[in-house]
Design brief:
With 442 residues, the protein is α/β, with parallel strands linked by helices. 36% of the residues lie in helices and 16% in strands.
Length: 442
C-alpha cells in the first residue's frame, strides 16, 4: 500500500486494500495466501468466472499467432466473427453491424457519434442515477457528481437529464402502479419545456442501472420510452455494459423487457477479463459515419476477440443465463428475510443475478445509510467476501458474483453478508432493536 500510494494517483481509488495474486472461478487468493469469495467479478467483467477454461484456452492459442496487428491496417477473422455473433445475438429481427472498441466508455462515445451522424441532430437525453463512463462525453452522460464529475467541468453541451424509474425514491412522489409510469410519459413534457424532440439524436438508458444502484424499472417503463423515441425519430440506445451477457437472466436485459434497441452498447463481461467493448446496431444506422470516422488502434484486439468468442460459447453451453435466474431468486429470498429482521435494509431489488439491497437509517425517512454501507463492505472483506457499494447515495450493496459460483460458495457468501448487516445494525442502531424480531445469525 505504501508503494501504491507513492506510485499511483489517489484518484485511482480501490474498494479494498487486498492485493490479488491468483483467481479461479468465483475465488480470489491474495498475496498473503488468503482466499476470498468474489461478489465483485472485476466490476462485473467476469460473468463466466476468473480464468474460465475456454477463455484461457482460446487466448493461449492466439498468443502463438500474433498479439496485435490493428484491424484498420491488416484485418483478422476473429474481429469479424465476434461482430457476426453479436449481430445474430442482439435483439431485433433486422440487419445489424458491430464496431469493436476497448471499453464501455469508448463504446458509449462511439454510439453517440453514430447516433448524431445518422440523425443529424445534436441533443442527447440521459437519466438521473445513470453511469455511462468516465471519458468526457460519457462523464457528461453520467449522473453522480462525487466522485465522478466534480472538478472536471465543463461538460459536453446538449445533454439533458430526466428522472429514471427509481420507484423506491420516486422523483415525483408517486406510487407504482397508480403512477401510470408518469416518469416515462414525462419525456413528452421534456420535449415541450426543455429540448425540442426534433433536436434529439438519442435517448441512452441502462435497462437496469449499474453504478446508480441496480434499479430495475417497472416492466412498462422501457417499452414506453422506446415507443416515444420512435414516435419522434429519436434513436433508442441501450447501455448494457453491466447488464449484458447473462447477468439479468437473459443474454441481454433488453430481452427481459421486450426491447429492440437501435444501438446496443456492451463491454465488461464480453471480454471475459480482457478489455473489449462493442456497439451493435441497425445496419443503416451503423453505416452513417463516413469511412475512417470510427475506430482506434487497439479496438477489437485479437486476444480479446478470441476471449469474447469463448465467453459467448461458455454462456450458451453452460446455460449461465438460467444460472443467473437461480442465483437471483436465491439472493432475493434471503435478502427479503433481512429486510423483515433489520430496518437497515430498506429495499431489495434487481433482475436475474443483478441484485442489490439499499440501506437506510429509517424505513420511514429512507435516509441513506452510506456510512453503514462502508462498514458492511469492510466487515465482509475482512472476513473473506468482496462486495461493492453503489448508488447515487453510496448506500447500496450490489451482487456481481461470477455466474459460475457454486451454491455452497454462494450460501457461504450470503452468510457473511447477513452477519455483516446484523452486526452493523446492532452497533449503529441499538435503540431500534427489537430482540423478539432479530434472529441470531452468528
Amino acid at each position: 500500500m505504501r508503494r501504491r500510494t507513492e506510485a499511483v494517483p489517489r484518484g485511482a481509488y480501490q474498494v479494498t486494500p487486498i492485493f490479488v495474486a491468483g483467481a479461479k472461478g468465483a475465488v480470489l487468493e491474495d498475496v498473503d495466501g488468503n482466499r476470498l469469495l468474489d461478489f465483485a467479478g472485476g466490476l462485473g467483467c467476469l460473468n463466466v468466472g476468473h480464468r474460465a477454461e475456454r477463455v484461457v484456452g482460446s487466448v493461449r492459442v492466439q498468443l502463438e499467432r500474433f498479439l496485435h496487428a490493428c484491424f484498420h491496417v491488416t484485418p483478422y477473422e476473429s474481429y469479424i466473427r465476434v461482430a457476426e455473433r453479436l449481430n445474430g445475438l442482439a435483439p431485433g429481427n433486422f440487419p445489424k453491424k458491430t464496431l469493436l472498441v476497448n471499453s464501455g466508455a469508448e463504446a458509449v462515445e462511439n454510439a453517440i457519434k453514430i447516433a448524431r451522424a445518422y440523425t443529424r441532430r445534436p441533443a442527447l437525453i440521459c437519466f438521473e442515477d445513470a453511469f455511462h463512463g468516465r471519458t468526457l462525453l460519457a462523464m457528461s452522460l453520467t449522473s453522480k457528481t462525487h466522485p465522478y464529475k466534480s472538478g472536471f467541468e465543463p461538460f459536453v453541451g446538449d445533454v439533458y437529464r430526466v428522472p429514471y424509474a427509481y420507484c423506491y425514491r420516486c422523483a415525483y412522489s408517486l406510487k407504482y402502479p397508480s403512477c401510470d409510469i408518469f416518469c416515462a410519459c414525462h419525456l413528452e413534457d421534456t420535449f415541450k419545456r426543455v429540448v425540442a424532440a426534433e433536436s434529439v439524436a438519442a435517448v441512452i438508458v441502462e435497462p437496469v442501472t449499474g453504478e446508480g444502484g441496480f434499479i430495475a424499472p417497472p416492466p412498462q417503463f422501457l417499452p414506453l420510452l422506446q415507443e416515444i423515441c420512435h414516435r419522434h425519430g429519436i434513436l433508442f440506445v441501450a447501455d448494457e455494459v453491466q447488464t449484458g451477457f447473462g447477468r439479468t437472466g437473459s443474454l441481454f436485459a433488453c430481452e427481459r423487457y421486450g426491447l429492440e434497441p437501435d444501438l446496443l452498447v456492451t463491454a465488461k463481461s464480453l471480454g471475459g477479463g480482457l478489455p473489449l467493448g462493442a456497439v451493435t446496431g441497425r445496419a443503416e444506422i451503423m453505416d452513417a459515419p463516413c469511412i475512417g470516422a470510427l475506430g482506434g488502434t487497439f479496438g477489437g484486439n485479437p486476444l480479446a476477440c478470441e476471449a469474447a468468442l469463448a465467453v459467448l460459447e461458455t454462456l450458451e453451453q453452460d446455460q449461465l443465463a438460467e444460472r443467473a435466474k437461480h442465483l437471483g431468486e436465491r439472493f432475493a429470498a434471503r435478502a427479503h428475510t433481512w429486510q423483515q429482521q433489520w430496518p437497515l435494509v430498506g429495499d431489495v431489488r434487481g433482475l436475474g443475478a443483478m441484485q442489490a439491497i439499499e440501506l437506510v437509517r429509517s424505513p420511514q425517512t429512507r435516509e441513506p445509510a452510506d456510512e453503514e454501507t462502508k462498514e458492511i463492505v469492510r466487515y465482509c472483506y475482512e472476513r473473506g467476501l468482496i462486495v461493492l457499494p453503489a448508488g447515487s447515495y453510496s448506500n447500496v450493496v450490489r451482487l456481481l458474483a461470477p455466474l459460475v459460483i457454486t451454491d455452497e460458495q454462494f450460501d457461504e457468501a450470503l452468510q457473511v453478508l447477513e452477519t455483516a448487516i446484523k452486526t452493523v445494525y446492532e452497533r449503529r442502531m441499538p435503540t431500534n432493536r427489537d430482540p423478539t424480531s432479530v434472529k441470531d445469525s452468528l
